[in-house]
Design brief:
Helix content: 25-40%
Bound molecules: NADP nicotinamide-adenine-dinucleotide phosphate
Number of strands: 10
Structural class: alpha/beta
CATH class: Alpha Beta
CATH topology: TIM Barrel
Number of domains: 1
Number of helices: 10
Radius of gyration: 18 Å
Strand content: 15-25%
Length: about 280
Amino acid sequence: MSKSVPYITLNDDKMMPQLGLGVWKASEAQAREAVRHAFETGYRSIDTAAAYNNERGVGEGLKDAALPRESYFVTTKVWNADQGAQAAHEAALRSLEQLGLDYVDLLLIHWPLPDKNLYVKTWKALIALKEEGRALSIGVSNFNPVHLQRLIDETGVTPAVNQIETHPYFQRADLREVHRKLGIHTEAWSPLAQGKVTEDPALRAIADKYGKTPAQVVLRWHLDNGVIVIPKSVTPERITSNFAVFDFALSDEDRARIDALDRNERLGPDPETFNLDT
Ligand SMILES: NC(=O)c1ccc[n+]([C@@H]2O[C@H](COP(=O)([O-])OP(=O)(O)OC[C@H]3O[C@@H](n4cnc5c(N)ncnc54)[C@H](OP(=O)(O)O)[C@@H]3O)[C@@H](O)[C@H]2O)c1
């Protein structure tokens, strides 16, 4: 069994580490320190967003690590207030400036905002940014099947990734199946249910069998499902332990026990109605 992070081949033939570090809610200083520690641990992928207000800290952490640019993968996202052709283009260039990078590996539309009805125009801006070499891959976040299909029908370009809320309590098998049929990779946000999995007795019992933590067992389960994960932590020991998931295998029975924890429990907003654009 490989003990290093596996890579997923996206639908544009680019490679993405299947496990990365999320930095939502981290301050600039925390993000810098978390990125530095993560890179020392072996992580090679960071997930940030303009809305997290820590792209500059991420960029400083990347500089501290001083690794060759092609050896790591950076994702950022165009925020809701910046939807539309020109605004999205400008927002992406601002993100690059904050990060101190010439390009990101993956650029996402953060939310669809169906009422605003600008996500197709925004997608066209991302297509242009990819053509300009400012984003090597482009994708979306929080898109439902109807939104995905519209992008494909109106531009002919399929997102490489849809980053969605998914964890043992909100497994979204139907949406993952839509992704599979469309050739879109599923990326999980809140893969640890924002830390809630650590308190779950069923997950604790499974974890004890393997000498692992509930968080490690849940990350292993996501990876086994082919899902890309970006657990967030600013705690060095947790950043390290969340990466120690490549040296054990769950049994089919234990995977099925985790499958059985689904209770359709969403922790974040519903993309159909989420309209925040400030
Ligand atoms: N696209 C979107 O709309 C969207 C929405 C939400 C999140 N995201 C992305 O997805 C990433 C992950 O999601 P998330 O931050 O919501 O939730 P998460 O990764 O499921 O959980 C993070 C929380 O769990 C704690 N934690 C991390 N590892 C732990 C461990 N081993 N044991 C116990 N607690 C642990 C963290 O605390 P400490 O930091 O204090 O260690 C933090 O409070 C975000 O950082 C962001 O990059 C995207």
